[in-house]
Amino acid sequence: MLVSSLLTSVGINFGLCVLYITLYSILRKQPSHVDVYAPRLLAEGNLKQRSSFNLERLLPSHGWLKRAWKLSEEDLLSSSGLDAVVLMRLFIFSLRVFSFAGIIGIFVLLPLNCTGTQAVDFSDLSNNSLDVFTISNLESGSKRLWVHFCAVYAVTGFVCYLLYYEYNYVSTKRIAYFYSSKPQPHQFTILVRSIPVTPGSSVSDSVERFFTEYYPSTYLSHAVVHRTSKLQGLINDAKKLYKRLIQLQSDPSQKKFKRDCCFGLCGRNVDLVDQYEKKVRRFGGECEIGTIGGFIGRGSSFEKSINTTSISLVPISKDGWVGGWGGRSRTFVSEVITGYLPSLILQMFLKLVPPVMEFLSSIQGYISHSEIEKSACNKVLWFTIWNIFFATVFSGSILSQLEIFLEPKNIPAELAVAVPAQASFFIAYVVTSGWTSTASELFRLFPFIWSLLRKPFTKTTADEFEVPSIPYHRDIPRILFFGLLGITYFFLAPLILPFLLVYFCLGYIIFRNQFLNVYAPRYETGGKFWPIAHNSMIFSLVLMQAIAVGIFALKKVSLASSLTIPLPVLTLLFNEYCRKRFLPNFIAYSAESLIKKDREDQNDATMAEYFDKMATAYQDPALLPIQYSENTYSLNSPLLSSAESRG
């Protein structure tokens, strides 16, 4: 790629970023678009109502930048939870890493690369190839490669230091967050599955008998959870009909009659209001019948299956409950996930990858949305690394890519040849996919278009308003993938580093703004996404070091290649130390933390009242009375009402 091509790409995407940010700074002040750009503030009632029209509303402003910049970590923790803090710590970590790497890469490595075998013609810079800025421009055996060798060691040490610091920081925050949190139902609840039932007794009786006999001092009550996916479908249909009925009754201008034959072209006139009222009443009856049938049918199915009892922690109240897939075979899921996932899906429908991976995770048997999103986050990350990085680098079929990795001794040499050749592509990728996608996150392009198309035909009331939650399984893999590109290419093509720094600066400001105005926490994992980020960074380091071993050998600097070999070993030993030191805290809280928390609860006078509420804390959303005007998450509704979960 020529420098002119890169500059063209940078110019186009920079223009798009400026356009998105300018439009956002104007549209966010328009009352008609407040549900797109400040849904969280609108739902919480913290939105300042603008009075009459004034010219200032049509001019761009930077007030949102100041508010996003001034947001403290403690405020973010209290309003959006520890998961939001982890996402922002990921941006801070990346900015620190690539600021350090950028100083070395731009001011040390880049000048060395430019003065290699092919000198840069500054009088005709736009027609130079980007290869003159990469390590490929250095001749074999050049002593300048020792500077790159030192840079690899320096960046590895700096990244490992920051990884340890951040792991320890997030781990400490996780414990402090647990101590400061109010008692939640999920902390006192376990989920029991595959319950063996003796003839003549129900599931409820079996659970009662078992826990009363073996855990008399800690058992309080239980609730049987039913599979209500069919019932939930009926409820959703009833809600849709109710919305249509409200629209017809509230808008006198709408047509209230239509013909009942041939899509309204012929037949007798039918009163739509009367028709929808009858359907709503009919659905109400079906829902009631479905509720009764759900208890009976589920109980009989339990009696027919005598399995080993499975016990696990219940999902967090806000976390929600995923029903209908728990009993599927994990073997089938494994075959689907590892089998048919062609790279064409990613290249043509990249935005479909996170929801597809979320669906694949949901059929693995996870019981909560946090577990599903963590699993999907891992899948999206490795899917992206394989289908964007390795598929682009090796540019061949899946079989040819696998053949390379089947011979481990040839991996460094293959990477040393293939990775530098794609440096120009990934620089353009950072600009195109990084800058523009982050700016479009601020502008919220698709929600804005959907709002424009929907408003002429519907009238959304406050009860029907829904505040979005941030899709961590979409955003965290993207950040980590750009981190992989930066660590991998910092010594091969240092020119990528300024573009990455711009991306992380944009993301840091924009996501802080989104947490303030747009996204509301739907569940809380307590920072469990950080181990995924840590493992990804370790993989990026090992990949960079393997490429360094191959590139130094390819450039006939065998001593540097040999001295680089200990780096992957030391990095993996460091990762093993961090895994043993910090990971257990992210799997479960220590006995010391739990005992300390229990002692604090024992001295709390309100705990007796809280335990009284625990008996009815968890309820199946599908079995609650239908409230048509209330906005819910359908199958994703929490088993505990939001009011109780915040108390």
UniProtKB/TrEMBL annotation:
InterPro entries: Csc1-like (IPR045122), CSC1/OSCA1-like_7TM (IPR003864), CSC1/OSCA1-like_cyt (IPR027815), CSC1/OSCA1-like_N (IPR032880). Residues 330-552 form the CSC1/OSCA1-like 7TM region domain. This is CSC1-like protein. Residues 6-166 form the CSC1/OSCA1-like N-terminal transmembrane domain. Belongs to the CSC1 (TC 1.A.17) family. Residues 187-286 form the CSC1/OSCA1-like cytosolic domain. GO terms for molecular function: calcium-activated cation channel activity. The keyword Kinase does not apply. It is found in: Membrane. Pfam families: PHM7_cyt (PF14703), RSN1_7TM (PF02714), RSN1_TM (PF13967). It is a multi-pass membrane protein. Keywords: Calcium, Ion channel, Ion transport, Membrane, Transmembrane, Transmembrane helix, Transport. It comes from the Eukaryota. The keyword Lipid metabolism does not apply. It comes from Liquidambar formosana (Formosan gum).
